[in-house]
Amino acid sequence: MLEHRVAGATTTAHPPTSWGLDPRVEDVKDRLVAALQRTWADPMVRRGTLGMSLVAAGSISPAFLPADTFEEPASPLIQRFGLEWLGTGAGRVVTTILLAVGMALLVDAWLRMRPTHGRGAPSMAWLFWSLPVMLAPPLFSRDAYSYAAQGKIISRGMDPYAVGPFWVPGPFADQVDPMWVDTPAPYGPLALQVQHGVVSLFPDNAYVSAVAMRLPALLAVGVLAYALPRLAERYGVSGRHALWLGVLNPLVMMHFIGGAHGDAVMVALVTVALLLASRGQLVVASMTIAAAAAYKQTAVLALIGVVGMALQAQADLAPGATARFRAMVRHGLVHGAVVLATFAAITEVTGLGWGWIPNLSVPVTLRSLLSPPTFVGSTVEWFMRIGGMPERVYSAPVPIAQTIGLLLGLAAIGWVTWRVAPRNPVLATAAALLALCASGPVLHPWYLLWGGLLLAAVRLSARQERVIIFVTLFFVTYGVVDATVVNGTWALGVSAALWMAARLRANRRRAQEQADEPVLAALFPRR
């Protein structure tokens, strides 16, 4: 209002809007509406939304709903809409078909949306694809039920690092995977308090509390949609392409949104931390890594990227390996101290303590054949079993293989830190997280998103991108087949797998036919 106090000043104030909003707020609203309209105008966005709608319809089945939903007496909503038949053999077939067709449509839309010849992925597609499943039961995993039980444990004044869901008997414990009913929480204190906050909104409804765990996941994907393209552009990679390959990836829709995994928040915070570090805000970036680690502890590996960016920003770095080693140690100590101090402060504020440390072994109790070391050890164990060897002999290969895997993983992370981080900090962070996934004793499909999403911000060759697409389709198919097995209709899942393979082949052929210029030049124009 200063211009009204100065004689002769010309006012630049904008007239009030019809909604009584500040002009800047009105401008943001108009741009958001325009972005939503442009996004919805894309036929592939509508196709993907239809696919996710079919997935939501297919989720009304015993594969995803609580075990007693279709038992007599059936759930009130199931009875009200006459859906009891979905729990029968015919109903399982119908819901499985809906699920498989829905995921096939989503994959097809994603592949067709691949940015080529100036065509970019619509900025708000992730929101349209997420909305249909927001009220669906947790998909492709029961972890959201564990989150709800852990939040309930805190609300009752108990220590989630000391007791498991068994201590909140009833609806909150009943839907937790039996493997985890007696195990305490391995997650960071910030994640547990967020779960507590969500449960406090619906304290008497375990199912709704589990479904509501999608709220922080959806917010995290929105943050990723903002930060990942900007991080990519700072390293000369198309932001639209990063949005397509990373945020719109079907695995994100399946597991971050569908499964409501807390890993979404961790990955979003890591991406923001790297974006801040790339802008020279190294201390704030380290504090953000601490927040990510307070959600899931593996985020601490992102410190590798911050140290790499600190090296790049150091103008007086002398040449030679010795000088680089000293600088890396110095930056590692400084920013590591910031991470530790911030993590300790978050732990103090949450009031949950450090009980997660002994609980880190909890996930390892699961034998995951997706893990390469566990698969190798289990294969050797199987041959020993059929060879008639005693138990004390055939019980050794799995822990030995897992130990070797961890050692190889640590060696790979060390090599990446030394050789890759100073040249490409984002790639180093992604590689370190992926090395941890590949070498760990347990591997779930959503673990690959820890580092896989960051690869979208890295300049890739056409072959490397095809590998990412292939891995995405493999684990999408794995999730669909796994769900069909639970539903007792595994043959449909195999059919979906064959379709995914045919679709990938057709997409590669079309991409080659449409290539009027080198692939890298089209996908990754230099800025």
TrEMBL record:
- Keyword check for Membrane: yes
- Entry's transmembrane regions: 48-65, 85-111, 123-140, 206-228, 248-276, 282-311, 332-357, 399-418, 425-447, 467-500
Recorded hits in InterPro entries, A to Z, give: MptA/B-like (IPR049829)
Q: What is the name of the protein in this document? A: Alpha-(1->6)-mannopyranosyltransferase A
Topological relation to the membrane, as annotated? Multi-pass membrane protein
Keywords assigned = Glycosyltransferase, Membrane, Transferase, Transmembrane, Transmembrane helix
Keyword Acetylation listed: no
Organism of this sequence: Terrabacter lapilli
Region annotated Disordered sits at 1-20
- Compartments where located: Membrane
Q: Which family does it belong to?
A: Belongs to the MptA/B family.
Q: What is its main location?
A: membrane
